[in-house]
């Protein structure tokens, strides 16, 4: 998948009109699994890092 295809997939997905299979077919017969993985990666990236602060307890 190219960067242009990934950008188009995100745009189509966010429109709410297309499912992952339709997006995969429209973008040159990509594998639906690749579209799903890319959309999941975008969601994870937008969510930000999983940060847990741990505080030491003084005894």
Q: What do these coordinates show?
A:
Helix content is 61%, strand content 0%. Helix 1 (3-15) packs across helix 3 (32-47) and helix 2 (20-26) packs across helix 3. The model has no long low-confidence stretch (mean pLDDT 87). The protein has one domain (3-47). It has 3 helices and no strands. The protein is mostly helical and 59 residues long.
Q: Domains counted in the coordinates: how many?
A: 1
The shape is: elongated
Distance between the termini: 54 Å
Tell how many strands the DSSP assignment holds: 0
Characterize the biggest β-sheet: none
Question: Quaternary state, please?
Answer: single chain
Please estimate the helix content. 55-70%
Radius of gyration (Å)? 17 Å
Q: What structural category do the secondary elements indicate? A: mainly alpha
Q: What's the order of the H and E elements?
A: HHH
Low-confidence stretches: none
Mean pLDDT: 87
Q: How much strand?
A: under 5%
Number of helices: 3
Brief overview, please?
By secondary structure, the protein is an all-alpha fold. The protein is built from three helices and no strands.
């Amino acid at each position: 998948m190219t960067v242009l295809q990934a950008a188009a997939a995100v745009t189509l997905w966010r429109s709410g009109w297309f499912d992952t299979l339709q997006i995969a077919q429209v973008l040159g017969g990509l594998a639906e699994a690749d579209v799903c993985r890319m959309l999941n990666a975008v969601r994870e990236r937008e969510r930000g890092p999983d940060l847990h602060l741990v505080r030491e307890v003084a005894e």
